[in-house]
Write a structure and sequence with these properties.
The protein is an alpha/beta fold. Helices cover 31% and strands 17% of the residues. The chain has 16 helices and 20 strands. The protein has helices at 24-35, 52-55, 76-81, 91-104, 194-203, 230-238, 240-248, 268-281, 297-314, 318-324, 342-345, 392-395, 407-410, 444-465, 474-489, 519-531; strands at residues 13-20, 40-43, 111-112, 117-123, 128-133, 138-146, 168-171, 186-190, 209-214, 220-222, 337-339, 351-355, 361-365, 368-371, 375-377, 380-383, 398-400, 429-431, 470-472, 537-539. α1 (24-35) packs parallel to α14 and α14 packs parallel to α16 (519-531).
Length: 540
Amino acid sequence: MPSGTQKMQKAAVDLDAVVVGAGFAGLYMLYRLRQLGLSAVVFETGDGVGGTWYWNAYPGARCDVESLQYSFSFSEDLQQEWEWTERYASQPEIQRYLDHVADRFDLRKDIRLSTTVTAARYDEKEKRWIVETDRGDRVRSRFCIMATGCLSAARIPDLEGLESFAGRVFHTGRWPRGKVSFSGRRVGVIGTGSSGIQAIAAIAPEAAALTVFQRTPNFSIPAWNARLPPDRQAAFKAAYGSNRETARNTRSGILYDYAQRGTFEVSEEERQKEYEARWAKGGANFTHCFNDVFFDQAANDLAADFVRAKIAAIVRDPEIARTLMPTDHAIGTKRICVDTDYYATFNRPNVRLVDLRTSPIKRVDATGIRTSAAHHDLDDIVFATGYDAVTGALARIDIRGRGGERLTEKWHGGPRAYLGLMMAGFPNLFVITGPGSPSILTNVVVSIEQHVEWIGRCVEELGRRGATEIEPLPDAEEGWVAHVAEVAGRTLFVQTNSWYMGANIPGKPRVFLPYVGGFQNYTRICEEVVERGYEGFAIA
């Protein structure tokens, strides 16, 4: 058997579908394809299932959507039998859940682990995708389904001298298997987004010294995580059907308390009472305190001021508190973080904050990191620098459609996809939670289920028609891209340099990647497309 780094061409295999990725999306897609009686294989780079959750095994890793909602709904037995232990599930618990799903539905026999898809080329004559892997696999399939995930292409910044560092280097999005000890070590964490905020609070109690290198401070709301009371879990499960349906009819696919009133429709006293109640409840629901927070800068400023005041009250050193306060973006327009004791961590004597805006990193050397102001001696460097979001994993595969057109060439000015599901010129190629779909602005499990079910029905419809190909019409694709941009333009999101805009990747076009018009509206549009005979698609 060749190793993962060797490539030995194997005999071509003919299947109905190839699925790339074995996280939430890939597992459910495989289950659905089997329901349709189709032959399929899933290729997964990791040596275990789980996708993003397999790789993000860093200390403190935890979901920011409540566990009872961040789970599959397609099987009533599954959602009733699985017992969650905490309000917000940790990475190990989510990994156990996904392992259970893979075993319960006997999915592993069609999953090829430790196998990376390197190329996918459409054969126009045969109307088949030719998919190749780093292990020499060559599969011909009618359908190619990308379940590569929105947050899977980990990014390490290009720092001068990094290769000379004598200590250990980690990335939160590619964490090694097994326990990593930081006991007695001097640790540097670069990045203060969601993963950085979680890792910092978890590493600080163990490390001898922790230096946090912060370029851009982010807003974070306490999770107030706790054990999940059995009676609460039982009550939620008893109403799972209605709970799921209600969630699907919201803008984010999550059961939140969505405010029905504006910031300036209430008194100052009532406003502060609402902010306090949201803070006390915890979680990303804070940003839904009033219905104009994402649209009105003045309204957003008041919510942001409240969080900044909380930071000042928690962090004892006023200068450190000011450095931790975001002032360059509207609250919620970068992914809102959910934490456990993040701000309080900076009260610890072994934690130091370095502001990279005033003292940027100059280089890395054998013993640590040198900024413009000082040298920081380190034993370990942890990169919490995020991902090339939404499109990055696809860009790492040589995908070619009609006429040999590369997907990266089609997307050179920004991603273009109809409904975030398919691209003109790439027949029978589906992308689960692709650019131009709600994806990262939602409970992504809900978005995944909606896409998988839409793809399944689409494949069924092709069978009924005796058709072999489906792809978007160029005009429909252009219209959807324009609609996504127009809806985003009504919000404060587009005023912020965030990974939602691709701003964390040098040279990446600045395009707002997800659809911000609301999950419930997006679902309705997708259904209307089907009801109108797959409007905007060419079927042959």
